[in-house]
Structure formats: C-alpha cells, structure tokens
Write a structure and sequence with these properties.
Shape: globular
Number of domains: 1
Structural class: alpha+beta
CATH class: Alpha Beta
Helix content: 25-40%
Order of helices and strands: HEHEHEE
Number of strands: 4
CATH architecture: 2-Layer Sandwich
Length: 106
C-alpha cells in the first residue's frame, strides 16, 4: 500500500463486499478521524455500523482477513462494530474526550 488512507479505503471496500447489506457504513475513528494520526504511533481504528444486532458469525475471520490486506498497516488495524441503536457519540476515551468519527468511502 502506498498510503494508510489507501489501506483504510481497502478495508472499507472489503467489509462492504463481505458484509453486503449488513453494512450500513464504515467510519474512521480516533486520531485517524480527527487528523492526529501518526504512522509510527497510531492504531488504525475503523468502526462498522451494521443492520444486525449481533455481529455476523464470521466477524473474527473477516477482521483477520482485513488485516492481511497490508502487511504493515494490518498490524495496526482495530475494528469496532455495532448497530444503529448504539450511540457512538456516547463513547468516551480513557481521557474522557469524545471519539472523533468520519465516514470512509466504500
């Protein structure tokens, strides 16, 4: 991958393909979303908004596969998911600040 944003776009497209209609949207979270991302120190946090209340049975395998899309950036990938009833705005970091969220292109 030439850039971490290309990797994030590939991850979003991968989950869109794998989850089909179960995926409503994919989001960049944390430092990736608010522009504080460091290629050296930051994780790549991606949130998935799903139509189902329970994750698909293969979610663990799907995440493992998404990590293989890039040898370097895959080590930093963290995937979070939930359904529309969950309030992402209510999430707080360990420092008490609200997580930043921006949509990924799928």
């Amino acid at each position: 991958m030439k850039d971490f944003l290309d990797y994030v776009a590939c991850v979003a497209a991968y989950f869109k393909s794998a989850l089909a209609d179960s995926l409503i949207a994919a989001y960049k979270l944390g430092s990736l979303a608010h522009g504080g991302f460091s290629k050296i120190y930051s994780d790549i946090d991606v949130g998935l908004l799903l139509t189902c209340t329970e994750p698909p049975a293969a979610m663990t395998a799907l995440i493992a596969e998404a990590k293989t899309l890039d040898a370097e950036y895959g080590k930093k990938l963290s995937v979070f998911w939930d359904n529309p009833e969950f309030s992402w705005a209510a999430c707080r970091s360990s420092t008490g600040s609200t997580y930043s969220i921006t949509a990924c292109r799928c």
